[in-house]
Amino acid sequence: MLKSLYVHIPFCRKKCEYCNFYSVPYDEQLAQEYCDCIAKEIRLLKTEFSTVYLGGGTPSVLSIKQLQRVFNAIKPGLSTDTEFSIECNPESLTQDKADLFFSYGVNRVTLGAQSFDDNFIQKLGRIHSIDDTFRAISFLKQSGFSNIGIDLIFGIYGQFFDDVIKDVSVACTLGVQHISAYILSYEENTPLCFKMQRKEVQPISDAEVADMYQSVVAVLAKSDYLRYEVSNFAINGYESKHNLNYWDNGEYVGIGAGAVGYLNGIRSNNIADVPAYIARSCAGESVISEFESLSDVDRAKETAAFKIRTAVGISFKWFFDVTGFDFMELENGVIESFAEQGFIEYYPDNDGIKLTDKGFLFADSVSMEML
Ligand code: SF4
């Protein structure tokens, strides 16, 4: 069976204020050794991939030589149908890198634009400007890419409703195929969270953020970017296959420091420490630091919790086919209450459920209750 592959590139030029992903400052020598290790591990997989996703961290911070090392390992696993995505930051994408991606069969690039207002980009602690973003998009188009995604963050402290609408409207004019729009969250132990605790920043109220979200959805829909998951919008046919696999609770291989894998009902976390990862990998030792073996019921409940976040929702037949469980027997307790509160609705033939527009505002709570 074809596999989904996630490769973590844990290097960034500078840590953003709100970020809790595993990453370390980019160091050329360390990155070179790291790329050698992950290239070796990818080669050992000896399989064809349905999707490949290079995420981070900042994959585009790697040098051309380092990128070639990783791409050469991935190449034998690509077929004409493989969705091959890479995350880029606007300041580190060059024309040469965009050309290299294209020549190696990358067919989907997402850019961490976050905002089209330099003031808000700086508040997030990011190092690019909106000019970098516009330039990066033109590099990608020049290289021949026809599947480009933009990531946005909204609900940034100090942002008004009109600022958010402006950001989304600009994104819609860029001729990209996919837009992700995430609400800023104050993750524990991040500089942004500490600022909030010291009362140096004032988060926007939940009610205002909910209003912003509904307007974001409406503005995007007018430009044919349809919501297919809580925070993800695409022109029809450009939904991320890699991420859809996550929301189906499908299996995937995770390569790299801090990467997660999910195979045969076992979720594994790779050690989130680049030097230790390299040392273990070179010594031929396992790079996995933790395992979680899920029971059949836990797997089924997780599947419900992920899938409910999608616009299509949960078809009871699909659920039975992939988990072996009757959805309503498994989740009966919570579903009726969500239906009464107007968070979910049944399919016309009562053979499935999905979130309502109101339910999308409470998707995290609905999802958590299903676990
Ligand atoms: S570039 Fe991305 S991964 Fe790196 S610190 Fe910023 S948000 Fe985190």
In short:
The protein has 371 residues and is of the alpha/beta class.
Description:
This protein has 371 residues and is an alpha/beta fold. The chain starts with a strand and ends with a helix. The protein has helices at 28-45, 64-74, 95-103, 118-123, 130-143, 161-172, 191-197, 206-222, 241-247, 274-282, 296-307, 316-323, 327-340, 357-361, 363-369, and strands at 3-9, 11-12, 24-25, 49-56, 83-88, 108-114, 148-154, 178-183, 226-229, 232-234, 253-255, 260-263, 266-270, 288-293, 314-315, 344-346, 352-355. It is globular, with a radius of gyration of 21 Å. The protein has 15 helices and 17 strands. The protein is 42% helix and 21% strand. The chain folds into 2 domains: 3-247, Aldolase class I (TIM Barrel, Alpha-Beta Barrel), CATH 3.20.20.70; 307-369, no CATH class. The mean pLDDT is 96. Residues 12, 15-16, 19, 21, 23, 56-58, 89, 112 line the site of iron/sulfur cluster (SF4). The site of iron/sulfur cluster has 11 residues, from loops.
> In CATH's first tier, which class of the largest domain applies?
Alpha Beta
N- to C-terminal separation? 28 Å
CATH architecture of the largest domain: Alpha-Beta Barrel
- Decide which structural class fits the backbone: alpha/beta
How is the biggest beta sheet arranged?
9 strands, mixed
Indicate the percent of residues in helices.
Answer: 40-55%
Shape: globular
Number of strands: 17
Approximately what portion of the residues adopt beta-strand conformation? 15-25%
Q: Which value, in Å, is the CA radius of gyration?
A: 21 Å
- Unique ligands: iron/sulfur cluster
